[in-house]
Amino acid sequence: MQHENSFEKWWGENGNYYENINITKEEFKGFRFKNGFNKGDIMVLWGRSKVKIGDVIVFQGAASKPIIHRVIKINEDKTYRTKGDNNADSRQDELNIKKVYGKAVFRIPWLGYIKIIFTDLISLIFR
After folding, report:
1. CA within 20 to 30 Å of 12's CA: 25, 34, 35, 42, which one?
2. For the chain, what is the domain count?
3. The sheet that has 80-83: what strands, in order across it?
4. pLDDT digits over 36-93, tens only?
5. How far apart (Å, rounded) are the C-alpha atoms in residues 30 and 52?
6. CB burial class (10 A; 0-12, 13-18, 19+) of residue 43?
7. Position 90 in a domain
8. CATH number at residue 15
9. What is the dihedral of CA 100, 105, 106, 107, to 10 degrees?
10. Is residue 2 part of a domain?
11. Is residue 103 classed exposed, middle or buried when 0-12, 13-18 and 19+ CB atoms within 10 A define those classes?
12. Which range of residues forms the domain containing residue 49?
């Protein structure tokens, strides 16, 4: 969910999708992490209840690594439709709360690079 440019430029490239699902530019501006975040940022998670449209959540997908997406729809059965801010479309499956680790409430810029660098070094050494 990295936004490489300003919000205005990002919205110009991605806004039609959100407007087609009735999320306006003004609403999106009110969402937490409207400007995305960067590789290496650590996201602090808090709870998984009271998730609302626009929240950024971390959940377990089909792959082994957790996925971080924005909630774009909450269904009557309390399942979620999510989308990565830079993905062309939403996930096709509905997400159950049981797969959600938590809601992103804060980010610590760049601190995650410590782990990324360490992991990359280990993989180079033990190829």
Report:
1. 42
2. 1
3. 42-46, 100-108, 56-60, 66-74, 80-83
4. 998 899 999 999 989 999 999 999 988 888 999 999 999 999 999 999 998 889 887 8
5. 12
6. buried
7. yes
8. 2.10.109
9. 30
10. no
11. buried
12. 7-125
Gap between the terminal Cα atoms of the chain: 30
The residue count for the chain? 127
The amino acid sitting at 20 is N
- The percent of residues above 70 in pLDDT, for the chain, comes to 96
33: left (phi over 0), alpha (psi -120 to 50) or beta: left
Q: Does 1 fall in a domain?
A: no
Radius of gyration of the chain (CA): 16
Structural tokens at position 33: 């992490």
Residue type, 79: T
